[in-house]
Each structure stands twice: as structure tokens, then as C-alpha cells.
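Before the break, one more example. Copy the sequence into your notebook; we will annotate it together after we see the structure.
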Amino acid sequence: MSSATITAYCTRDDLRQWLVSLMTTSDLLAFPMTLETADHTVVADPTQLVLTIDTFRIYLFPRSAMPDPLPRCIGEVESRRRGWISCDVGGVRDSDGIRVLTQSTISGEDFDFEEVHPARYVRSLKRRLAKSTKAGVRAVGTDVVYKPVRYTEAAVRLASEGVQWKYDLTSVPSFEPWDLGSE
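Here is what the structure looks like once it is written out:
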């Protein structure tokens, strides 16, 4: 068994581009979960993938792993058992008058006995993102650094506009880019 995870501060547009890239290069389908509807549908055409403010999770899987029937709610998905990639969608939200950028996470876990190996797809994307993202964030006001967490230039622009980076809307610490060159 092996696993791979990408954790990043990025915009929904950045994340959408990464997911479209995975869908295109690996012939994957997307299954977005939103708060606005219980009628979830599979997206086969990568150009049709939309991440709204209500999209909180997206699953990616090979066409051969299409379930019948589709899960109706998140509790029925069982992404690990099915060998699906799971993506928690972050993005900019307002929290008590403060603009917050929450992190996004893409993860996959391989099991030797399964035909689908989502960690391979995630590792492949991670290698490609190494060129277009930077690694390392620091908890504001501390020396605590999280080297594996990545961020995009768009996230840096948002921070320069006063948007706080947080794990989620309820977390206390804020994060900022950590310059690996100053180590």
C-alpha cells in the first residue's frame, strides 16, 4: 500500500486546471459533490468541470471504475475502497468579514490487490506541479514551517490583498509563504 497527497493554497481556477490535467492525461471521470444539490452527476468531459463556491469535494476515477448506481451522498462514496482520488476543494470565502483562502488537498491511496492506483496519478501531478508551485508555508508569528504544503502565485497575490491563508474557516492560525531560500 502507498499513498500520495498534494496540499496547496491555490485558487479554484488553479485547482480546476490541475484536475482537468489529471482527467485529460489519465482518462479520468470527475464526481463533484456540492452543498447545493443532492443530484450529483459524473463529468466525463474535462472542459465541463466546474468548481463553484458550493463544491466541497471532487472524486476522480477511471471510466472502468464507474459505479452503478452512483453514490447519493458523501457517506456512500467510499473513495479508498473504490480506488478513487479524493480532492477537498479550498478557495476564498468570507468568514466574519475576513477573506480567507482555505487549502485544497488531493489524495490517493494504492492497494496492491486493486486494479486502480490513484496514488500514481497524484504523484505524477505532484511532479508536474513542482515547476509551477512553491513549497513551504509558515504559521504567522511562529517558526513553525510546513514544508510539504505548496502554494501558487495566485495565492500569493491574494495574500498581498489581505486574504488570510487558513487550514479551514474555523482554524485559528494563519499561514504565509515560507522562503525556502532563506533556510
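The chain has a mean pLDDT of 89. The chain has one domain: 2-132. Try to locate both features in your own notes.
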